[in-house]
Amino acid sequence: MKNNPIVGQGTSLHQWQRSSQLAQLPDTDILQLVPEGSRAVIIAPHPDDEVLGCGGLLQILAAAGRPLQLISVTDGSASHPGSASWPVERLSTVRPQESAEALRRLGLPLHSLKWLRGGFADSQVAAREAELCDFIERYLRPDDVVFTTWREDGHCDHEAVGRASAEAARRVGATLLELPVWTWHWAAPEDRAVPWERARKILLSAPLVARKRHAIHAFASQLEGDPLVGLPPVLAPNVVDRLLQPFEVVFI
């Protein structure tokens, strides 16, 4: 992966809508990927990645009664470097709260959802990757289906979490499914760096997409930048639009 690919406006939704690679992806049933008796484990680098990457399929799994385990690796406190409005101390409290509200908006059963916070430092996960792998392994079972960010997603934490999750899943014999999140920003519509042969679409109904949109808007900190220090919003409107297509993609 090239250095710092998450710059500029990125690939537009319109460009992705014209992608022949994306158009010809086979679709799959999430309830077959997570069969009855299996647990879905969602490993998110930051509090919001679980909604951005798989907010739709989470709704389907919850409605079907599949057990869910969420692991938030960091608290996302490095999203606004240098900001007096969004300092680290505020973000470390606010971002997990935003995530909880987003999951409530998705209709997830928060009373029964098992949720672990790893406490790893935002933007520095790679430095403790081996430790993270051991941490994740402790909470996995052989019949789990693990969802995490793609190992080549373009953000240092996403990639480190993807690698650590892949190794932990391998050790216990769990199934790994990877989610592109920032890939939609830096990749070109026909980009050969994307493993299209492994990609599958999970189709989302209009109500599922609407709830996902509502959930994304719980992340107030990420929808706001800080002009005083030259920070644009992390979740600018074009970023949000790309993540709200009528499907989600997993790499099997």
Describe the model.
- By secondary structure, the protein is an alpha/beta fold.
- The protein has a single domain, classed as LmbE-like (Rossmann fold), CATH 3.40.50.
- It is 39% helix and 16% strand.
- The chain is built from eleven helices and seven strands.
- It has helices at residues 13-17, 20-23, 30-33, 49-63, 88-106, 129-138, 156-172, 183-186, 206-216, 220-223, 237-242; strands at residues 39-44, 68-74, 114-120, 144-149, 175-179, 199-203, 247-251.
- The strands form two sheets. Strands 3-2-1-4-5 form a five-stranded parallel β-sheet, sandwiched between helices.
- Strand 1, helix 4 (49-63) and strand 2 form a beta-alpha-beta unit.
- The longest helix has 19 residues, at 88-106.
- The radius of gyration is 17 Å and the shape is globular.
- The model has no long low-confidence stretch (mean pLDDT 97).
- GO terms for molecular function: hydrolase activity, acting on carbon-nitrogen (but not peptide) bonds, in linear amides.
- Pfam families: PIG-L.
- It comes from Pseudomonas fluorescens.
- This is Acetylglucosaminylphosphatidylinositol deacetylase.
- InterPro entries: GlcNAc_PI_deacetylase-related, LmbE-like_dom_sf.
